[in-house]
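FORM 7B: Structural annotation worksheet

SECTION A. Query
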Amino acid sequence: MDLAKLAANLSPAWSAFLTDWDRSLRSGNYPATTRYNYLLAAAQMGRYLTAHTSQPDGSKAADTPTAVNRRHVEEFQAWMLQTRSASTALNKHKALQQFFKWLTLDEEEIDQSPMLRVRQPKTPVRLIPIMRDEDTKKLLDNCKGKDFVQVRDEAIIRMLANTGARLSEVANLQLSDIDLSLDTVHYHGKGAKDRRVRLGPKTARAISRYLRARSSHRAVGLPDLWIAVRGARPLAANGIKLMLKRRGQRAGVKGVHAHRWRHTYAHEWKLAGGDTGDLMLLLGWTSDDMPRHYGASAAAERAQHVQARMGIGERV
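SECTION B. Predicted structure
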């Protein structure tokens, strides 16, 4: 993460506070992705105050985060809702809560957080479309072949579909995280929560084929599991994201992204009557809200099955 780039066009005080906050987050062993999202939200607010604030005291807040008040936050949040989305605005809200909590409790730079009475933006409850088996098959068919990129992409898609892991978890895998003697993968989840997940036979076979192809690649010495086609470098999360988009376009499947398989995993688990506690362990969740959120599509489908079976209003 390039902190200097992240803090570009911010005042010296904003930049200094972000540097200190990053140090505090690193000492707390926060994952790199979490740190980036937190710091990005604070940096975006600082730049917003410089360019958009209409308040008389706006220049002070643009100079230092210690001058930010509730109205500044609400203006920024309203702008996020207008220019991005409700879910993005909610993510920024949660990140800023952590930033001003740090300024209040850890640094004692302010007496009270300006987030104290700022309401979280309401987000619409949407049923995330799951990835149907036929769509996953189209993507896998598009990967057929013996070339390195085809073998690699099939292994990635099968791992996402088979384990329901987050994109970042799959992208950050090391060679040492794969154990084909037990057909398991060791994921490093959010909040330093590790878990070991079993691989299905087809997924384990796809990974084994990939490892054989990888052994003759120029980047064979890298510890990262996934490596790019060109150059001796790992395949990052954004590279996997772009790969999935390309595969989706070629296969005629719309809206392909890794998180859909995570929803699908929870969907299939709940439809099969699987235990919620076991699902939380497998997907790396600690909050009971997550199974309800991710299982919403399954709940809706179960309700439709019950409705059809009961035949309410159809017996007359």
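SECTION C. Observations
The longest strand covers residues 184-188. The chain has 15 helices and three strands.

SECTION D. Sign-off
Analyst initials: ____
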